[in-house]
Amino acid sequence: MDVTAAKYIGAGLAMTGLIGAGAGLGILFGNYLQAAIRNPSAAAGERVWLFLGMALAESMGIFGFVMGFIILFVKV
Amino acid sequence: MAAIEPMEQFLVHKVVDLPPIPIPGLGALDMSITNSVLFMLIAAGLISVFFLAASRRAVVPGRMQALAEMLYGMVDGALTGAIIGDRGRPFLPFVFTLFLLIATLNVLGLAPGGFTVTSQLAVTAALAVMTFSIVLAVGFARNGLGFFKLFWPSGVHWGMGVFLMIIEFISFSVRPLTLAMRLFGNMLGGHVVTYMFASFVIGLGLFGLHGAGIEKLGLVGSGVSFAMIVALLALEFVVAFLQAFVFAALTCVYLNEVVNLDHGH
C-alpha cells in the first residue's frame, strides 16, 4: 500500500476515538440536566464538577484527534 | 488556487533577531523575539494594564474594577474556595495567574492575525510541568512521606489495594501529560476546524462563481460555511475561557488531594 494512503486511513481511524468522547459528553450533560431538573437548588453547586467531567471526557477525544494530526503532519 | 495549509498558522518565526547568548554547559541560547514570545509579552502587558486600571480601590467600583473583582471572586469562590476549601487561600494567586494568563493567550489567538501561544505543545507542557511540580512540592512539604498515602485506596482488601495502587500511581504520573495535551489539543483543533471552513468559503465560492448549471450550488455551500465560521468562532470564545477555567480547576483538584490528604474534604 502507498504510504500516503496508509497515513490517511490511519488518521481516519484515529478519529474513531471521538465516538467515545461524543457518547461520554452526551451521558454527562444528559445526567446533569436530569439531576438539575429533579433538584434545581443543588444544580449550581455541581456545575464545577460538570465542567471538570466535560474536560476529562473531552480530553480522551482530543488525544485521538492529536494522534490523527501526528500521523498526518509529523514528518518522520 | 493557493494550497490549503491548516498547520501554517502555528509556525513559530522570528520577529526581532537578537544575538544568541552562550550558556556554559548548555550551548548557545537563541534569545530572538518570535511571534510566540511577542504574544506572551502582549498578554502580560494587557493583564498588567488591566489591573493597574482596575485597582483604584474605590468603595463603589467602576466598570474595570467591577470586572476585576468579579474575576477574582469567581476564582476565589468557585475554584480554590469550593474545591480546596479554606486551606486553598494561599494558592489563590497561583491559580488566578494561571487562569488569567491562559484565558488571555487563548483570546488573543482568536483575534485576526493573532498567534495562539497555547497551541504550542512546548508552552502548555511547561505550564503543566510547573503545576505538577508545585503539587509534588506542596505534597511532600505538607505531608512528608505520608504523601504516598495518596495512592493507597481506603477500605479495600490489601490484595486489591496493591492492584489499585499501581493504577492510581499511573493515573497520577500521566497528569502533566493530560493537562498539557488537553489545552494544546483544544486550541489546535478549534483553529484547524475554523481554517478548514474558511477554505471551504473561498474554494466553494470560486467553484460556484466559475461553474455553470448545478455547479452554482457551490455558492450555497460557501454561504453555509461562512455561517459555520461565525458559529464556530462564538464556540471558540466559550472554549477559550472554558479551557482556562478547566486548567485552573484541575490545578485546584490536584492541589486539594495533597493539601487535604490527612482529612477528606
Concise description?
The complex is a heterodimer of chains A (76) and B (265). By secondary structure, chain A is mostly helical. Helix content of chain A is 80%, strand content 0%.
Please give a structural write-up.
Chain A has one domain: F1F0 ATP synthase subunit C (F1FO ATP Synthase, Up-down Bundle). Chain A has three helices and no strands. Chain A is elongated and about 60 Å long. The model of chain A has no long low-confidence stretch (mean pLDDT 87). Chain B has 265 residues and is mainly alpha-helical. Chain B has one domain. In chain B, the strands form two sheets. Chain B has a two-stranded antiparallel sheet. Chain B has a two-stranded antiparallel ribbon with strand order 2-3. In chain B, helix 2 packs across helix 3, helix 2 crosses helix 7 and helix 6 runs antiparallel to helix 7. Chain B is globular. Chains A and B meet through helix 3 of A and helix 2, helix 6 and helix 7 of B.
